[in-house]
Design goal:
The complex is a heterodimer.
Chain A (H helix, E strand, L loop, with lengths): L1 H6 L1 H23 L8 H19 L1 H7 L2 H24 L15 H37 L1
Helix pairs in contact in A: 2-3, 3-4, 3-6, 5-6
Chain B lengths: L1 H21 L3 H25 L5 H25 L4
Helix pairs in contact in B: 1-2, 2-3
Classes of the chains: A mainly alpha, B mainly alpha.
Chain lengths: 145, 84
Amino acid sequence: MQEFIKEQIIVRTVSKFFTPFIQLYAFYVIAHGDLGPGGGFQGGVILGASMILYVIAFGMDEGRKRVSQKISDIFVSTGVLIYAGIGLLCILAGGAYLEYAELPLGSHHLASHLGIYGIEIGVGITVAFVMITIFFETAKKERKK
Amino acid sequence: MFDIATIAVIFAIMITLYRVIKGPMIYDRVLAANAIGTMAVVLLVLIGFEYSRPHFLDLAVVYTLINFIATIAFLKYREKGRLD
């Protein structure tokens, strides 16, 4: 076991060092979706990629300690729930589905901005955990062979 | 200025592409593909300056991160025969 850790020391150290920066960048991409390139989907993919890098470096068991099956299942549904919830709130506030400007958050401009922001966060959570789930399933299949 | 640099980088990518196609070992190919990825990042930044669109820098950073992860994943799969 000790030699196994020594064998991969460069990959493990570099990925441990890089993972927080990748996640920070993912949040930047999600938050700046309406100003620059990017948005919920792209930020979610980067967030998932950070976890994939961690699993590649440290193995599946160590990765499952960080993101268990239960947590990833819950978060995959939570993102969709946020998306649909904001859409339905817009209907309740008197607009059409996903018509953010009708949300009761002060001015129309602010409501529209915050509505898009919430949608991006929901999409980001779902995409990140779907990517992690796809990777785990693929890696499990390769391992069985 | 930037257009000359862009042409130079494209030329360098073509030279490296020769190593990807011809490379006798798989490690030559992986290393050359990784170098092409790095040069693609430089190309993105240069094109961003050429058309004065600074948003291209964001894309360049994303490409760096994903390129790094892809290379590590490929080498791990090659060495161990599995991904985790």
